[in-house]
Amino acid sequence: MDEIFPSVRTEFSALIKVEGSRFIADLFPVIEEEEAKVKLESVRKKYYDATHHTFAYIIGAEKNIVRYSDDGEPSGTAGVKIHSALHGKNCSDVLLVVTRYFGGTKLGVGGLGRAYFDAAEEVIGKAQFISKAVVKEMFVSFPFSETNPVMNLINTQKLRIARTDYTEECSIITLQILPSLYSSLQLSFTNATRGLAEISAGETQTVIWQ
């Protein structure tokens, strides 16, 4: 099954106030857990005098890295609420930190959970999401005489060209395709070039898809 999921390209921030407390939500794109930890530490330094820095992050196309923390707030009132907001968007490769400045009025467990969830939802609502996808590299090598049928197929199928290389005898186009399309495209390029194209597979990677 092809893996396509929402993420963010750049950082976004939002602020809500509840009963005098300020909740500052910062949403970051991250692709590795160490990067998430560095971003989290930067928020802690920026708001060094805040009461709490709660967070959640989800990383990987399969969402195989998931962490969240209440950072001293009552269990279940912060980190899991932030994660729930991210999960509801079905996004990955994101870190969401909600920093709280206590305003003097206790919100109670229910009120606190709603506040953290609302802060997370506020920044998610402001953010501009992009699509990311797991793609496979496909190398198409063909003699110059087959340029037209190869390019016609690429244009018709709206395939993404990552790079083009040339030798004295041929062109080599590197495509980024959804893995499910590999076999059918291999056959299509073979038929379009009367068997003169050589097809091979490269690495699998996660890229911005739009």
Draw up the topology in text.
Layout: E1 4-8, E2 12-18, E3 21-29, H1 33-46, E4 52-59, E5 65-69, H2 79-89, E6 94-101, H3 108-126, E7 129-143, H4 147-157, E8 160-166, E9 170-177, H5 182-192, E10 198-208
Helix pairs in contact: 2-3
Q: What descriptors fit this protein?
A:
210 residues; Ribosomal Protein S5, domain 2; Alpha-Beta Plaits; 5-stranded antiparallel beta sheet; 40% strand
CATH superfamily of the largest domain: Impact, N-terminal domain
Q: Helical residue percent?
A: 25-40%
Number of helices: 5
Report low-confidence residues grouped into runs of 5 or more.
none
Largest sheet: 5 strands, antiparallel
Main structural class: alpha+beta
Overall number of domains = 2
CATH fold annotation of the largest domain: Ribosomal Protein S5, domain 2
SSE arrangement, N to C: EEEHEEHEHEHEEHE
Round the mean pLDDT to the nearest integer and report it: 96
Task: Kindly state the number of beta strands.
Answer: 10
- The top-level CATH class of the largest domain is Alpha Beta
Radius of gyration: 23 Å
N- to C-terminal distance: 19 Å
Percentage of residues in DSSP E strands: 35-45%
The shape is elongated
* CATH architecture annotation of the largest domain: 2-Layer Sandwich
